[in-house]
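User: Predict the structure for this protein chain, please.
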Amino acid sequence: MPYKDKNGKFCGFLNAEEKEGSGKFLRRYFLLDEKKSRLYYYKDNPGNLHADYSKTCGEIEIHFISRVSDARKLRPKVDNCFSITYAGRTIYLEAEDGDDLEGWIKALNDASKITVPVKHEDLGNGKKDSRAGFTAEIAGGVVCKIPMKVSDEEPGSSDESPNESSGLSASAMQSYISGYCVKQGGMRKNWKRRYFVFSESGFQYYSSDRAKEPLRTLPKADIIDVRRSSSGHSSRDNLFEVVTAKRTFYIQCDDPADTDKWVNMMKQNLPTTQISLTKLTGPNGEAIEDAESTEAANELSGDGSDPGVS
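Assistant: Here is the predicted structure, written as structure tokens:
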């Protein structure tokens, strides 16, 4: 089990595959510093080393982690293996035993999850409790105090339905497909780890798999298209897009197989008359974004009227 040092930081030894795909694991000492949002690793416990030899071998920025999971089925020859996926890269680690594996997965998932902002409580005298009203973020190396809001999206957007809680956690809901991905924000364009659920109710995302209330819901009828992304996000692999009339959502999966799974499952379960963007020429020859549905295409070109009606 990872233990806490005198400063309250999770730490312990793990075997790490530092060079991806090499199959060579090296024993390293890991230190989880939640205040600095970093996972550091050293050749040995830095407390046992001279200051000149206590430099880190490397570090992982916690906010870039999209998944921490059990990898024993993926790497059956590596005992107690788990993986950390971040910034499009996967690192495989070997724990001492099963308890150690579960402890590290829980500690890392807890450290990398996004905290859901809560509404201010009414104190009963017409005033709001502002004690949880701000969150600290770093912008350009400066710590900024930013007011918290219930949703991470732009206010007043109308392409969403009310966020009603079903009483079930996100992972317990019946769905076509669900899981963790990373999405781009609507206002600040930062990337955040969210738990996504695509079900009969629509496309929803939550702060974590244990959350009961979605941060946002897109009804199926509002989704125009789902496709692999061809936009210029050069530092982001495995992206797909969920297109609505008012916004395109950019979502990053862990690998190409996950991306294809999301795109195919969503396409298969959207209404059959849904517009799917391809190339189409309008009534005056102009290029417009097309639809696989003939009905939708006719509406766009103005030819959808009954031949018998003038």
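Residues 115-123, 149-162, 275-310 have pLDDT under 50 and may be disordered.
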